[in-house]
Structures are given as C-alpha cells and as structure tokens.
Amino acid sequence: MRAALLGVNGPDEPFTVRDGRAEGVDLVAEWKIADVRWYGYFGNVTTVNRTLMRIDESKREVRSVDEEWSVTWIGGTPRLQLAGSRTRGQINKKSYSATFTRDEAGNLVKERQQSFSSAELKPPLQHAVTSAGWTWRGVVAGKL
C-alpha cells in the first residue's frame, strides 16, 4: 500500500506524497505550494492543508487526518507556518479570487479568476487505496 500511495506522485501533480516518519505517521500528502512552478495554481490562499496517513496492514485500511497550515505571501513567495490554532480533522476549504478591470466603455470585465479546493488532494489517494481493495478511513477525532 505504501508503494501505491507513493506512486500517486508525479511532476504534473500539485501535491506530493512523502515519508511521514518526521511527523510520527507513515506518509504525508501535501501541496507543492512552495514550488515556484505551482504558485499560480494556489492563487493567494491563506491556508492549506496536508493529509497525514497511517497504514494498517492487519485491517487493510489507511486512516487519514488533515492538518491546516497558514500561508504568508512575502513578495509573491509563499511561506508556510503552522496555524496559530491547530486545526485537525477532515478539512475541505474552497477559495476563489477574481481580478476585474474596466473596458473602454467603463464596464467591469473579469480579467482573471482562480479557485482552489483543499478537497482536490484526497481523491487520487483514495483511489490508490480503494482500487487495491483497501479501505480509506478519514479520522475526525481520536488516534490516527
């Protein structure tokens, strides 16, 4: 299962799945928000989440919990820091931004729009788990 989840990684994915020993879990999936190639994808989000995963081979299940991080943009470069109040559970946040200009007639014209959903991180992970016949279990409270 570990190999299947790590196999979700790819250069065209806006997230990465990596070893989670430093966090005390098996794997961590997180957005590539600090990667210059993906700045435009995230817009000016103020929070992002990462998904911590524990693999339970005896139950053929992957348990997951999300953590929320605040993002500070300094000169167009994002910097991550743990949010002042820790948020854990199953997180699904959406953000939307748009830039408008006025045309020659003075009408507002949408120049650029951007949306981002933290929920986009989980479907590829869940698919890797369930296509192998395992169970994906999102943990809201309690032990991961």
Describe the structure.
The mean pLDDT is about 80. It is built from three helices and nine strands; from the N terminus they run αββαββββββαβ. The protein is mainly β. Helix content is about 10%, strand content about 45%. The strands form two sheets. Strands 1, 2, 3, 4, 5, 6 and 9 form a seven-stranded mixed β-sheet that branches. Strands 7-8 form a two-stranded antiparallel sheet.
Name the features.
single chain; 144 residues; mainly beta; 7-stranded mixed beta sheet; 3 helices; 12% helix
What is the topological layout?
Blueprint lengths: L1 H5 L8 E5 L7 E5 L7 H4 L4 E10 L4 E14 L2 E6 L5 E2 L4 E9 L5 E10 L4 H9 L4 E4 L6
Parallel strand pairs: 4-9
Antiparallel strand pairs: 1-2, 2-3, 3-4, 4-5, 4-6, 7-8
The pLDDT mean sits at: 82
**What is the H-and-E element order?**
HEEHEEEEEEHE
Beta-strand portion reads over 45%
DSSP strand tally:
9
Structural class: mainly beta
Low-confidence stretches: none
State the share of residues found in helices, binned by percent: 10-25%
Shape: elongated
Number of helices: 3
Distance between the termini: 17 Å
Largest sheet: 7 strands, mixed
Radius of gyration: 18 Å
Summarize the structure.
By secondary structure, the protein is mainly β. It has helices at 2-6, 39-42, 122-130; strands spanning 15-19, 27-31, 47-56, 61-74, 77-82, 88-89, 94-102, 108-117, 135-138.
